[in-house]
Design goal:
Shape of chain B: elongated
Oligomer: heterodimer
Helix content of chain B: over 70%
Radius of gyration of chain B: 24 Å
Radius of gyration of chain A: 16 Å
CATH architecture of chain A: 2-Layer Sandwich
Number of strands of chain B: 0
Order of helices and strands of chain A: EHEEEEHE
Strand content of chain B: under 5%
Number of strands of chain A: 6
Number of helices of chain B: 21
Largest sheet of chain A: 4 strands, antiparallel
Number of helices of chain A: 2
Largest interface: A-B, 10 and 10 residues
Largest sheet of chain B: none
Distance between the termini of chain A: 9 Å
Chain lengths: 107, 413
């Protein structure tokens, strides 16, 4: 079972060196324990481009699809047998990167 | 066997076996939806068949077997692709195959799943009453004053989340257990309190169906986790509160405060059972196990139910217990209740000073204003008391409480 573990941020500041280091340690543990699938940090929402090709002509719009105070700053994809395990991992991840986290199952 | 006897047997079987049947099926099929539907169908079949065929010698086994067949029928009816997914779910789980006698564990699993912290509090309450309590969606909707369709949707969404997010069907690990048990107890206490102090202008002031259901489910958890002190504490607290239920509301539907209650009308059997549980926990505390909030609240209620009247009450003991409770639960509501006891021990002047310090945090809480009103009345400050009663009446949601506060206000000189 895979879970999308999203990092939710509401400040413009990037991760501090301490947060980066703690996240690296956490990532190493995910890999060692077999929970790691993928992870990555994202550039600011202002760097996003939206494209809509449902109408035959691709419409390109500058900016994120949703303007909000809170935004997706990065994510993990984790392998976990059930939600309890995923939540325990996410709690550790939240502490490591010092951000709020959303856990959402893949179909 | 008469029709009445058969109906009684079905009611009893529903009361005793519903959670067991749902829990066993949920474990076997790994799907709450299948378990709930098949259990409901099995009981419907019993209603149809038992009057003609007679009540089976072991109703529980009959219901479980019938429900199992219903569940398998449903799974066969669904598409092949779906079947494969269901089979995959059936084998999911790292637990060994079900050993005989694991049935009680199944019910515990069911309770922990329904009270999972990833579900909203209202959802946990609804799901627990449906899956463990066996209440119908209509009954739960009525209990919480929402439309039946909305309640049905809430339960359906919860089942879908449990399945999609794979909320596990198991008793939590030892390190998570205390937090998860307190989550379960919070659900049951909420059900009890909604029954005990029902809100809403058109609701009975006391909803016995809800208090009784909360006590029944807490008894079940007590039977499944006899070593847990907080489970015992919550059960004792509920029993000692329920014991006073009939004395708490007058014939005219008005709340009767503790000092005016007919103590002879308290249910002596419930009081005795509650006291036994409190004594059991006191012995454990003496042996060095620190009591949690439910045990302390139960002990406070034990002091009240041991006293012949207000004057006979050991108020210094009550205040000492509140001091202990504040260390566990430093909420302003606990401080307010402590002040009520302080009024009896040190007088209303001292209590009022303590209550006034809580004004910032409890300004929207009816009991804060009701307590102030009573203290001000006792101090002869009628004008201020009247204003406090007005505010309390405005905020109170319980019809019996509103009636009591209104009369008290109108009696002010």
């Amino acid at each position: 079972m895979q879970y999308l573990v999203s990092v939710i941020d509401d400040t413009a500041s990037l991760a501090t060196p301490d947060e980066m280091a703690a996240t690296d340690v956490f990532n190493d543990r995910l890999k060692a324990d077999g929970h790691w699938v993928f992870a990555g940090g994202l550039a600011a929402p202002s760097a996003a481009t939206v494209i809509d090709n449902r109408g035959g002509e691709a419409m390109i719009t500058d900016g994120p699809f949703l303007e909000s105070k809170e935004y997706l700053a990065g994510f993990w994809i984790m392998e976990a047998p059930d939600l309890d395990v995923a939540l325990t991992l996410a709690a550790e991840g939240s502490k490591a990167c010092n951000r709020k986290i959303e856990v959402r199952p893949f179909l | 066997m008469s029709v009445v006897d058969v109906r009684a047997a079905i009611t009893l079987a529903h009361y005793e076996e519903w959670a067991r049947v749902v829990a066993a099926l949920a474990r076997r099929f790994g799907d709450l939806d299948v378990a709930e539907e098949a259990a409901a169908e099995a009981f419907a079949t019993a209603v149809e068949r038992w009057p003609a065929d007679g009540v089976p010698p072991n109703p529980g086994a009959w219901l479980t077997t019938t429900a199992n067949h219903k569940a398998l029928d449903r799974i066969r009816r669904e598409s092949k692709r779906e079947d494969k997914q269901k089979e995959a779910r059936m084998v999911y789980g790292d637990d060994p195959p079900e050993p005989l006698g694991a049935i009680d564990d199944d019910r515990l699993r069911l309770i922990f799943t329904c009270c999972h912290p990833a579900l909203g509090m209202e959802t946990r309450v609804a799901l627990t009453l449906r899956m463990v309590g066996g209440l119908t969606v209509a009954e739960i909707a009525r209990a919480f004053l929402v439309q039946e369709a909305a309640m049905g949707q809430r339960i359906t969404r919860a089942k879908a989340k449990i399945k999609a997010a794979r909320i596990p069907y198991r008793v939590p690990s030892v390190e998570d257990l205390p937090a998860r048990v307190s989550g379960v107890l919070a659900v049951l206490f909420l059900v009890f309190n909604e029954g005990y102090l029902a809100t809403g202008p058109d609701t009975d002031p006391v909803r016995h169906d809800l208090t009784a259901e909360a006590i029944r489910l807490t008894r079940l958890i007590r039977a499944l986790m006899p070593e847990d002190g907080e489970v015992a504490g919550l059960l004792a607290l509920m029993l000692l509160t329920e014991a006073r239920r009939t004395a708490r509301v007058s014939a005219s539907g008005e709340l009767v405060p503790l000092d005016q209650q007919d103590r002879g009308a308290w249910d002596a059997t419930l009081v005795a059972e509650g006291h036994r549980l409190v004594r059991e926990r006191l012995a454990a505390s003496a042996a060095g196990v620190a009591p949690g909030r439910y045990q302390i609240l139960a002990a406070i209620n034990a002091v009240h139910t041991s006293a012949r009247d207000m004057r006979d009450t050991d108020w210094s003991q009550v205040v000492a217990l509140y001091d202990q409770l504040i260390r566990v639960d430093p909420s302003p509501i606990v401080a307010l209740n402590r002040a009520v006891a302080v009024a009896e021990l040190d007088g209303p002047e001292v209590a009022l000073a303590a209550v006034d310090r809580l004004g910032d945090r409890l300004a929207g809480y009816h009991a804060y204003h009701a307590t102030r009103a009573d203290l001000l009345r006792r101090l002869g400050r009628s004008q201020k008391a009247r204003a406090a009663y007005d505010r309390a009446i405005e905020l109170a949601g319980n019809t019996a409480e509103t009636a009591y506060l209104t009369r008290r206000r109108d009696q002010l000189g």
